[in-house]
Amino acid sequence: MHEQPDQAQVHGEVDRRHATAPPDVTDAGTEAEAVVFVCATCGVPLTGPLTRLPAVPKTPYYAWWDAEEPGPSPATVPSGRYAIETEPYGAPLVVAEVPGPVMPRHGVHYNADGKPLLSQGPRGNIVINPDDARDLELRHVSAACCGATPDGGMNQLCACGTLVATLCSDCCLPYELHLSADHVRAVRT
Ligand SMILES: [Zn+2]
Ligand SMILES: [Zn+2]
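Above are the sequence and the zinc ion SMILES. Below is the predicted complex in structure-token form.
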């Protein structure tokens, strides 16, 4: 029991050092600037103010098969942040030469003939916590058991009727919302 204060102290020191690091090593003026993403078609805000992460975080470990009720996993991106996905994501899925993840943070998908698939979807999606999105309506485009999958491409409608994003929320998948770089605009707050 008496070891706990020591541990907390160590953690506190690590955190403080971490907190002071960004201004020294990065351009804090651009890194920390909050933006709101709006629909490129109608201009309606689709998120609150978000600040950028240097990369998409690793998917949090989550034993979805042990969950009492099926539902989304913990979100990949923390609330209030966004990150740019540099790899192809979502539809179309094409037959791959060698087996591997169909898209980042997903496992291997096979087609009906047992051939491994690979995403040839767009790069540059803006990945956010789905709970930070506003006024988007789900239009399912691919089969899922309890949530949405990105396999069929964009599945999130803006109020103006334009598809603007892809929700990934099925119980056994990473919980992410991908705003399409071609369908949204970043506005400085
Ligand atoms: Zn719109
Ligand atoms: Zn499910």
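The domain at 21-86+123-189 is CATH 2.170.150 (Metal Binding Protein, Guanine Nucleotide Exchange Factor; Chain A).
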